[in-house]
Amino acid sequence: MAEMKATVRVLLDLPAEIKRRNADVIAGSGYVGPTNANPLYKGLGLYDVGSPHSVRHFCSQLQASPSQRETMVKYSEAVHALAVDIGRKLCASMNLGIDLFKDWVCQFRINKYNFTPESVGSSGVQIHTDSGFLTVLQDDDCVGGLEVMDEKSGAFIAVDPLPGSLLVNFGDTAKMWSNGRLCNVRHRVQCKEASLRISIALFVLGPKDGVVEPPSELVDTATHPRLYVPFTVEDYRKLRLSTGLRAGELKPWLCCTVRRNMLLTFRFIN
User: Taking the model in full, what pTM does it have?
Assistant: First the structure.
């Protein structure tokens, strides 16, 4: 893990013209520079970390050295395998005989926050939920700033650095796939001190093809009716981008009751 942190620090310090070669596969999946919403942030991205070709292409885009390539490949394989194993264990705990993350897209993001004395107390990344199913995060070993929201009180709780650890949380897709049983987590990054902050995240997004919907075992008309309509990962991603709603507000848009009412209203108007 230390070798990976050292490698990504070097890659994030590359000249901007080289980092821009890390082009998007889908919107926001490649290099992201500072924006008005997140002026202290920049990052690199790899869309399909489960594909050896994609990992090699990412390294070529950034002109990674042989040792950096070796580190990237080993880390990518290890974290991807960990995420797949979590998916298997999750299904086993729910008595589901499926290989959950088989052929699902997993996206890699390398994040850098340039916190300055003037930015202390401000937001590094605004409050949001992750759109995918699962996130495996290697946070900064020394610099804090990650905060998660307590849904009952609305208070934010600091997640202090713990060297050598990985943090796992669920996103919107997990909430809807599980028919409401798994909880997505609202979180943000705050500037706590004037320092450089580095984190590495793997996002299990969803199936490459087909729709996301709860297994039949998680739906019961009497006790646990279907809460959300089936959707594709791409459609949900576009919905988040077009509305700008990224803190879990879009789940009601996919609610079965809301969608039925919208359809009835449309038919009435027409």
Answer: 0.89
